[in-house]
Amino acid sequence: MKTADIDLALGEISAGQWGMLTATQARARGINRSNLAHREGDGRLERLAHGVYRQGGSPSRPLDDLRAAWLSTNPAKLAHERTADPDVIVGSAAGALVHRIGGIDPLPYRLITRDRRQTQRQEIAYSQRPVGREDVTVRDGLPVTTVERTIADLLRDYGDISLVADAIRDATRMDRELDEGRLAHLLAPLAQRYGHPEGRGDTLLDQLLSVAERDAASRALEALQNPVLAASITQMLVNQQAAMHDALKPIMETMIKSMPTMTIPPALIEAMKNTMPVLPILPPGIMNLPSLNLTMPSVLSAQLQASATQVIRAAGVDDAIQRILEPTRQMIAAANPAWLKAVQAEAQKDAAAAQAITEMAIPAKLEAEDEPQE
Questions:
Q1: Regarding predicted confidence, which is higher, 186 or 287?
Q2: Window from 133-137, 221-225, 318-322 with minimum mean pLDDT
Q3: Cα-Cα-Cα-Cα dihedral of 231, 233, 239, 243, to 10°?
Q4: How far apart are CA 59 and CA 132, in angstroms?
Q5: Which is nearest to 284 in space by CA: 224, 222, 347?
Q6: pLDDT tens-digit profile of 46-62?
Q7: Do 257 and 349 sit in the same domain of this protein?
């Protein structure tokens, strides 16, 4: 073959294989090893693995060594011919390398096969194990176990909870969904090994998520510590507090007007009046007025809370205040669901975080103390 024809053929072979080719693929196009050796000598080809070369002008990429190892496992077929029905699948720590999760050394590269294989090569370790089609994907041109199957295989092959938790932490922080149901199913055969009831992959997954600090509570805390989300929620609450202010104002005015015969320190009355105009801009939170059986956003100052509670308890007028507040209960009840709905909407990208935020910041349960509890 002419030099130009050889270079053209090599370029066609390597075009769909990350700039790589195998000696077997070249031979099928009439190119012998001496042609390859000559081009390796002058820098037009670079040897990556046994019988695998990369075009000299092709850029080096992080997965090139793994790709070369995979190509060498079936050197006659082109890469695209092997991904549709893969005979060799990248898995375990090598799979984690492809998915960019965890920090386990991927060498030797764990390659999963249908039949039993052996090799003398130090960079490859074959494993014969069943892998369902639903547990295989193609990433960066390589057939690889899914993130869920990769995590399960990491636990099976390495047995280190903390190392696997690192992989889970990386997987849940990336822009993709972790199928926890599938992962729990894949972890089920390993449950007893880690002290869980037989087949309880879900509880083993809970343990891994907890170690990884990716359980619902940890995700909620992380979400609330995110400056962007925190600023968004704060602004949302400030907007909602305007409506809450309108609902709370009649309560305080009614309390003051309904207790004309009580001896109330003038400073307390002044504190109540002075607090009302600044309600919308006070920091959000949760506060309880015990004798009112009422939970509301913490828009009252600490001074007002302490003083009001002292007056109520000293006067012994809990029942009377309950009756006074009754006309305004529906008003607050109408405002609170909107507040809760807005909080949930802010965290809708993370259902677990939304649930945890809801549990930590659930608004008023406006029920009288004497109402039966379910």
A1: 186
A2: 318-322
A3: -150
A4: 34
A5: 224
A6: 999 999 999 998 888 99
A7: yes
Are both 155 and 237 inside the same structural domain? Answer: no
Question: How many domains, in total, are found in the chain?
Answer: 3
The reply to whether 68 falls in a domain is no
Exposed (0-12), middle (13-18) or buried (19+): which is 47, by Cβ within 10 Å?
middle
Q: What separation, in Å, do the N-terminal and C-terminal C-alpha atoms of the chain show?
A: 88
* Residue 304, pLDDT above cutoff 80: no
CATH number at residue 43: 1.10.10
Question: 207, 214 in Cβ contact below 8 A?
Answer: no
Query: Is the whole model's pTM more than 0.85, yes or no?
Result: no
Calculate the alpha carbon distances from 184 to 144, 155, 196, 243 in Å. Answer: 19, 12, 12, 44
Per the structure, the complete domain to which residue 301 belongs is given by: 224-360
Same domain, 298 and 351: yes
For residue 164, what are its two tokens?
A: 């696997």
- Which band of pLDDT confidence, cut at 50, 70 and 90, is reported for residue 296? very low
In a domain, 66, yes or no: no
Return the higher-pLDDT residue of 2 and 280: 2
Residue 78, in any domain of the structure: no
87 versus 260: the higher-pLDDT residue is 87
294-312 average pLDDT score: 42
**Nearest-10 crossing angle of helices 318-346, 351-360:** 160
User: What was the pLDDT predicted at 311?
Assistant: 46
Q: Are 93 and 208 found together in one domain?
A: yes
Residue 6 has pLDDT above 60, yes or no: yes
Q: With contact defined as beta carbons under 8 Å apart, do 53 and 21 qualify?
A: yes
Q: Are residues 130 and 174 in the same domain?
A: yes
Give the number of other Cβ atoms within 10 Å of residue 328's Cβ: 18
Residue 125 lies in a domain: yes
Claim to verify: residue 194 and residue 254 sit in the same structural domain: no
- Are 158 and 247 in a shared domain? no
